[in-house]
Amino acid sequence: MATRANGIKRTYQNTEQRQSTIVEAVVHLCGEQDPSTLTTARITEEVGLSQGALFKHFPSKSCLWESVARWVSEQLDQRVFSVADEHERADKALEAMFLAHIRFIARNPGIPRLMLGELQKPGNRPAKRIVRQTLSNYRQKVITLINRGVGQQCITATIDTEAAAVLYLGAIQGLVVQAMIGGDIQSLEQTAPRIFRLYSASFQEVSDAPQA
């Protein structure tokens, strides 16, 4: 069965499908405007629903943002973290995860704005807790891979693991911010390999300086 909203033909969706459609619409809209200015009216316009229908699926805006944050967390797990598991060598796993993350953001530019927006909100609402936990899990995964690399001897044993994890996430965040400033989010995928090569230089063993 199909329905029409705003002149657009839309096929019937069950509750789970409709919720997914709404969540993905929010992610898309966050790529076009500041998430803090995103209204339920704009969301319903995007998906072709009444506000009453929207709140039938999500009782409050807070519930909607919680579902959006959970979707982002799940997508990072499926599209980014899982990529690392395809590689035995830790350095290759780190590179694959770095590039997969950049690719994911290039295709979903609203996600960095959404996550940063949640972290800046006062209080400790469910969406904010999910974003914090996601970033904490990400940091721990990077640390685990670095430690594995040390054991595999493809990463120097003298590396500062904690600092390396901070730098890894910071490189991604810096790339995204620069792309947003330049208004060219699509350039991320071309720049990312060069940035990772610079980052990976910290993995290399530094030979002893020649004795005088």
Question: Could you explain the architecture of this structure?
Answer:
By secondary structure, the protein is mainly alpha-helical. It has a domain at 66-201: Orthogonal Bundle (Tetracycline Repressor, domain 2), CATH 1.10.357. The protein contains nine helices and two strands, in the order ββααααααααα. The chain has helices at 15-30, 40-47, 51-57, 61-84, 90-107, 110-120, 126-152, 161-182, 188-200; strands at residues 2-5, 8-11. It has a two-stranded antiparallel sheet with strand order 1-2. A hairpin with a 2-residue loop joins strand 1 (2-5) and strand 2. Helix 7 crosses helix 8 and helix 8 (161-182) packs antiparallel against helix 9 (188-200). The N and C termini lie far apart (83 Å).
Summarize the structure.
InterPro entries: Homeodomain-like_sf, HTH-type_TetR-like_transc_reg, HTH_TetR, Tet_transcr_reg_TetR-rel_C_sf. The chain is mainly α and 212 residues long.
Strand order of the largest sheet: 1-2
Report the average pLDDT across residues: 87
Helix content: 55-70%
CATH architectural category of the domain at 66-201: Orthogonal Bundle
Low-confidence blocks of residues = 1-10, 206-212
What's the CATH H-level homologous superfamily of the domain at 66-201? Tetracycline Repressor, domain 2
* Spatial gap, N to C terminus: 83 Å
Number of separate helices: 9
Cα gyration radius (Å)? 21 Å
Sheet of most strands: 2 strands, antiparallel
- Portion of residues in beta strands equals under 5%
Shape, please? elongated
CATH C-level name of the domain at 66-201: Mainly Alpha
- The ordered string of helix (H) and strand (E) elements is EEHHHHHHHHH
Structural class: mainly alpha
Organism: Marinobacter daqiaonensis
Domain HTH tetR-type: 16-76
DNA-binding region: 39-58
Keywords: DNA-binding, Transcription, Transcription regulation
